[in-house]
Amino acid sequence: MTLTDMRTEKPNILMIVIDCLGTKVLNDLKKEKIPNISKLINEGVYFTNAIAVSTTTSPSFASILTGLYPARHGIRQLRGKKLRKNVVTLPQILANNGYFTIAQVTGPLLKILGLDKGFHVYEYRDKEKTVYSDWWRETFKKIKELQEPWFFLLHLWELHGHPTVPSEYNSFRYGLCKYVRALVALDRKLGELLSILSDNTLIVLLGDHGEVYPSHSKKTWLRYSADRCLKKCLKIILTRLFRVSSVKNLEKSSVKLGHGFSVKDILVKIPLILKHRNLPKGLKIDIQVSHVDIFPTLLDFLGIKYELEYSLDGRSLLPIIRGEDFSWRPVICEACGAQLKREEYELAVRTPRYKFILKPYVRGDKGKLYDLRKDPQEKRNIIDKKKEVAKILRKYLEVNYLPYYYGISDLREKIKAIKQGKMGN
Question: Most-buried pick from 8, 38, 70, 379 (CB within 10 A)?
C-alpha cells in the first residue's frame, strides 16, 4: 500500500456517526449479532482505543469536523454555543477541493450551531425520521444520485434516549435491554446502506460518545431491574391503598443511565473504523486516539494540502496505519451534559494508563486520579497515592487546555496584538 495508490482517484466519503455508540457494547455483543459492523471491522482499520472529546453530542461533532477540542472550536455544550467564526471545517476544505458535501443530522445539531459551515446541503430531520421510515429509502436514492466525489455525513439517532426497536427485535433474544436490541436491529439497516456503495468509498463509522445502559454489566442490569420493580410496587401501594394522587417520576430508576454526566470510559470510549479498498484489512490498532484526529487523517488520506491560521489539536493517523513509529499522547475529554450544573462539569486528561479528572468550575478542586489498568471501572480514586502522576497530568491541562477553557488564551492574544500595535485599545 502506498500513498500514490490511495490518491489515484478521489474516493467518495461516507461518515456514519451513530449517536450513543460506545465501544463497550461492541465488545460485549457476539459478532453474529452485529454482522455488518463486524464485517467493517474485519475488512477495515479498527481503532480500539478511540476517545470522544465530550460525552455530549454537539461538542463531539464539532471536534470531528474541525480537529479541535471544544474550548478551541467554541461549541462547549449541548446548546447555546456556536462554532467560532475563524474555525475551518472539514467540509469547507473538501468543498474547495471538488467534493459535493451533504449532511443528514438530527437531535441538537441545528444550523444555529454553525456546523453547516462548508456543506452544500445541510438537512436537519425530525427524530421520527428513522432508518425504519421512508426517510431511509429516500436517503438511498439520494446517495445514488449524488454528484461525485461526495462527502456524506450521516447522523443516526436510533440508540439515543428511548432507543428505536422494531417489534420483531424487541425480545430478550436480541439483548437484555432496548439499547442493545436497537443496535442489533440498526446493524441490519447498515447492511442495506453499505451494499449500495462502490468500492471506492471511504467508510468512516464511529460514535459521538458512549452510553450507560441497563445491561452494560449483569450487576447494573440486576440493580436497574430490581430498583424499577420495587418502585413500581411502591407506586401501586401508594395510589391504590393510600389514594396518593401524585407519584411523579417514582418509577424512574436511581441507577444513572444515559450520557453527558461524567467522563467515565464507558462514555468516552467509542469505536472508530475506517474502510477503503486501499487501506489494510482487519487491522486493529490499540494506540489511544481522539475525535480530533479524524479531520487531519481524512485530509492526509486524500492528499489534500491545507493551511490554517492556527494549529490543530489532532494529528493524522496514516503513519500508524502504515506501520510507522507513532507515539501515544494524552487526550482530553469533557462532561458538560444538559443535566449538569456548571460546577458539576468534568474535564479530564487521559493516558493509556491514567485518567485525571478535574471539576474546572469548582475553586480549589484537587481532582481525581484513576489507574485504568488496575481499576477499569474507575471506582478507586488514587490521587493521594499517586500525587506525582496527578501533578504531571494537572500541569498538562493547565498548560495545554485550561487557558482556552477559561478564555485566557484569547485575552493573551489580544494583549499581544495591542502591544504590537495590531489592534486598538
Answer: 70
Task: Report the alpha-carbon distance of residue 360 to residue 40 in Å, rounded.
Answer: 39
Q: Rounded distance, CA 163 to CA 2, Å?
A: 42
Q: Is 251 within 8 Å of 228 (Cβ atoms)? A: yes
Rounded average pLDDT over 6-35 = 91
Measured CA to CA, the distance from residue 371 to residue 352 in angstroms comes to 9
Is the predicted pLDDT of residue 181 greater than 90, yes or no? Answer: yes
Alpha carbon distance 210, 207 (integer Å): 7
Whether the full predicted model's pTM is greater than 0.85, yes or no, is yes
Angle, CA 350 vertex, CA 316 and CA 47 arms, to 5°: 45
- Phi and psi (nearest 5°) for 416? -60, -45
pLDDT in tens, 182-197: 999 999 999 999 999 9
Tell me how many degrees the CA angle 298-300-301 measures, rounded to the nearest 5: 65
For residues 270 and 54, what is the distance between their CA atoms, to the nearest angstrom? Answer: 11
CB 1 within 8 A of CB 280: yes
